[in-house]
Amino acid sequence: MQIRVNLTMVSRNSKTGPIPVSTTSRNSCPDICPFKASGCYANGGPLAIHWKRLDESNAGLSWNNFCEKVAKQIYKGQLWRMNQAGDLPPMQFSNDLIDVDKLYQLVMANKGKRGFTYTHYNPTIGSNAEVIAWANSQGFTINLSGNDLTHADELADLNCGPVTVVLPMDQMSNTATPKGRKVVVCPAVTHDNVTCASCGLCAIAKRDAIIGFPAHGIGKKAASTIAKGGK
C-alpha cells in the first residue's frame, strides 16, 4: 500500500491559518470511519480535487520524504496540522491498524515541534491505543475522533489521547457528553477571527475539554445524522 502525502508549508485554508498543513491519500483512512462512505467534509470543494489528485497520481511525497521534510523544514516550536484530509498510515496487511514504524518516524521528525492530527482508527483494536498514547506522550498530539457524543465518552474512557467529536450541523454552542464531559465547539467555527494558528487547542494533548466540530461541507447532512447517533 503506497501512502502519498502533500505538505503545504503555508496553508491558505481560512480555518487553519498560515501554518504548515498536510494531506494524506485516502487509502490511509480506516474502513471503520462512518464518514468514509458519506459525510466526509473533504469530499467536496477544492480540497476534494486536491485529495483526488493525490490518490490517483504519483503526486506528493513518499512517507519517508514527508517525514524528512517535517524534520528539516518545520522549525522548532512551530504549530502544524497533519491531515486536513486523510489519516495516519495503516499497516500493509490491515486497514484497521496504525503502522507503528511509520508513526515512529513521524513522531521523531516532529520532535520539538507542535504537530497535531485526528484519527478514526479504533483504539480498541491491536496496539492502536498504545501507539496513540505513546505519540501523545512524545509531543505529537493525536486526537481521537468521536462520531457522536456517546462515542466521545467511550474514547475518553480509554485515556489514551485527547478527544474531538462531530456535532450536528446546527450545534453551535458548547455542550456536554452523556457522562458530563465538557464539549467546546471549535473556536475557529464560532469566531471569525480565530484560526488553528491562533487557537492551538487541538494541539494540547493533556486537556479536559472535548473539541466539537459541527458537521460541515458537502456531506454535512449525512454527517449530522451520524452525529445524532444515526447510521
Brief overview, please?
This protein has 231 residues and is an alpha/beta fold.
Description:
This protein has about 230 residues and is α/β, with parallel strands linked by helices. Helix content is about 30%, strand content about 20%. It contains eight helices and eleven strands. Strands 3-6-7-8-11-10-9 form a seven-stranded mixed beta sheet. The model has no long low-confidence stretch (mean pLDDT about 95).
- What does the average pLDDT come to? 94
Largest sheet, in brief, is: 7 strands, mixed
Q: Strands of the largest sheet, in order across it? A: 3-6-7-8-11-10-9
Q: Overall 3D geometry? A: globular
Strand tally is 11
What percent of the residues sit in helical stretches (DSSP H or I)? 25-40%
Rg from C-alpha positions?
16 Å
How many angstroms does the end-to-end distance come to? 29 Å
Topology diagram in text:
Elements: E1 5-8, E2 21-24, H1 45-56, H2 63-73, E3 79-81, E4 90-91, E5 94-98, H3 100-109, E6 114-119, H4 128-137, E7 141-146, H5 149-158, E8 163-167, E9 175-176, E10 182-185, H6 187-190, H7 196-199, E11 210-214, H8 220-227
Task: Name the descriptors.
single chain; 231 residues; alpha/beta; 7-stranded mixed sheet; two-stranded antiparallel ribbon; 8 helices; 11 strands; 20% strand
